[in-house]
Design a protein that fits this description.
about 100 residues; single chain; mainly alpha; 5 helices; 2 domains
């Protein structure tokens, strides 16, 4: 954020310095940090909570895959087991992609 833009913010110099320190800790400029925070506040998104939810979903998918394998051993037909495995793998791929990005 330029000095001119910083001067336009109606907050104390000490508070500006703290905001810049937080932004630097996140590896971004103050303006990018504020823009991201505003976007998240406007849309109600919380990246950390989303990552946690995706991690939980991945654990559930792993359980589904394990149950499908157990069901196959107990008499579930091969085609149904194959479809369950494909669905689980597709969902796991999507979740892993989101976890890698976030």
């Amino acid at each position: 954020m330029t000095e001119d833009a910083m001067a336009k913010l109606r907050i104390s110099g000490d508070r500006k310095a703290r905001y810049q320190a937080v932004a630097a800790a996140h590896g971004t400029s103050l303006s990018a940090f504020i823009r991201t925070a505003c976007d998240q506040a406007a849309t109600g998104l919380n990246a950390a909570a989303m990552r946690a939810d995706l991690a939980v979903l991945r654990r559930h998918l792993n359980q589904i895959a394990a149950f499908a394998n157990e069901a196959a051993e107990g008499g579930l037909d091969r085609q149904t087991v194959h479809r369950l495995a494909q669905e689980s793998a597709s969902m796991r791929t999507i979740i892993d992609r989101h976890l890698a990005i976030g």
